[in-house]
Amino acid sequence: MKIYNTMSRQKEEFQPLEPGRLKLYACGPTVYNYFHIGNARAFVVFDVLRRYFEHLGYEVIYVQNITDIDDRIIQQSIDEGISFHDVAAKYTKAYFEDCAALGLKAPSVQPKATDVMPEIIALIDKLVQLGNAYEAGGDVYFAAQTLPQYGALSGKKLDDQLAGARVEENAQKRHPADFTLWKKSKPGEPVWQSPWGEGRPGWHSECVVMSQKYLGETFDIHGGGVDLVFPHHENELAQATAITGKPLANYWMHNGFLNIDGEKMSKSLKNFFTAREILAEYPAEAIRFFFLSKHYRSPIDFNREVIEESDRAVKTLYASLKSILSADFSEDEIASSANCLSSEFDAAMNDDLNTAKAIAVLFELAKSARNEKLHDELRKNNAYMLIKLGRVLGFFQNLRAELADRTPDLSRQLIDLIVAYRMDARAAKDWAASDRIRDDLARLGIELKDSREGSTWTIKEK
Fold it and tell me: What order do you get walking across the sheet with 21-26 strand by strand?
């Protein structure tokens, strides 16, 4: 398997620290509100990475943090008139609910920042003792100039950050690139006791402690959105390197931005959507398909038309399964199914998690599963392989319920059959027959929608 490593800026062959075991850390939410649709992309990407390694037979230890103390949490507690504990508890609960709705597997470990406060203070204290950090006015800063390799992950050099910087904005800092490890608390804010007085940690120290506590000084993969490369991940790496002299992770993976109708998502532009809002409008698998139909490192543009296309594509996969399977399908047969397309699926996923190409394999299997010219046993085997590989991407999690919901309406079955015949005509480039079937159905009030993945139909309301 090859992974694009942000550190080296190239694809590298993946070599685990321990054979057969993957140690993965991906940044989780700061629980001051419902997480937005851009966050959801990162959560889905690393859920699929974890699922794929499990598919390959790895034991995966997946750690994802929850930041439950932060400036934004404190501000939200003021806005809502409740304690920061209550804000964090409220939105942590919402986070779990929304993750379940998206079909995300729970991480192996999901620590909270407030649970590891003694370890965070100990980390900062050690950095001070080593001379990599200094105290000023009750705050503690990491001295970036003490680490020659600072900027290796992001490519940002200290000299570049100095140019044009307004040092007077924080006279306590020795260098503009120095970042906060410990903040002196203001009146009314939550506090913890430390060698530098009452305060709370900076964001960058929390993830260092939580990742190393459960995965060791160096682990396999650290992931997150591309917006976290700098300063968050750069500053995590700096602290870990200063203390251990080792890399925090061997591979750094970052997913691309999500834009809304061609623009960056922003509350000021009123194009800011939470995952909860989008889940109320569209099925979770349509959202998952939308994210995975593009390569994870590519920027992706969110709009409702594309989501609706994704929904139709997912329904096409289900229609293919319904054409040959019932709700009493065999899990054993799924596990033992074999097909030459499985190697194409693995080749796509092994090429830096190319889910777009992997999805194309699913549609090849779907096409075979609904092909009535093939023997039923072959169709079933293809359907089982479709389920097996689809689950690697997080699809078909409630398949029995979906297959059990088969309307015994003969007219519905006949429409599906006619649509299947039309798809065969399209595949044979018999455009006259294809158009005739479409027009005849339209006269009966049945509207067809075509996409690259197949055709779906709806009955027009009179």
Answer: 59-64, 21-26, 219-225, 249-255
Whether domain 2-260 has CATH 3.40.1170.60: no
Q: One fold for both 2-260 and 304-459?
A: no
Residue 208: how many CB atoms within 10 A of its CB? 23
Query: What H or E segment, with its residue span, contains residue 145?
Result: none
| Owner of token pair 């590989």 | 389
What is the predicted pLDDT for the residue at 167?
Answer: 39
Domain-by-domain residue ranges, the chain?
Answer: 2-260, 304-459
Strands 263-264 and 300-302: unpaired
User: C-alpha distances in angstroms, 128 versus 122, 125, 138, 142, 145?
Assistant: 10, 5, 13, 8, 14
- What per-residue confidence (pLDDT) applies to 415? 86
pLDDT at 268: 66
What is the helix (H) or strand (E) element at residue 377, kind and residue range?
Answer: helix 376-392
Quickly count: other Cβ atoms within 10 Å of residue 300's Cβ: 18
Residue 181: its H or E element: strand 179-184
Query: Which long-range CB contacts under 8 A does 152-158 form with residues at least 24 apart?
Result: 152/7, 152/237, 153/6, 153/7, 153/229, 153/230, 153/233, 153/234, 153/237, 153/252, 154/229, 154/230, 154/231, 154/233, 154/234, 156/230, 156/234
When pLDDT is averaged across residues 375-387 and rounded to a whole number, the result is: 96
Angle at 161 between CA 155 and CA 163, to 5 degrees: 130
Averaged pLDDT, 228-256 = 97
Contact 228, 256 (CB under 8 A): no
Provide the whole-model pTM.
0.86
Q: Which CATH class is domain 304-459?
A: mainly alpha
Between 201-210, 212-221, 254-263, the lowest mean confidence (pLDDT) is in 254-263
Question: In the predicted model, what is the mean pLDDT of the chain?
Answer: 92
- Name the token pair of 275: 């995952």
Residue 266 has pLDDT above 80, yes or no: no
Q: What is the mean pLDDT of residues 330-350?
A: 94
Residue 117, Ramachandran bin (φ over 0: left; ψ between -120 and 50: alpha; else beta): alpha
138 CB neighbour count, 10 Å cutoff = 15
User: CB within 8 A of 445, min separation 6: which ones?
Assistant: 459, 460, 462
Are 273 and 265 contacting, i.e. CB atoms less than 8 angstroms apart? yes
The pLDDT, as a whole number, for residue 405 is 64
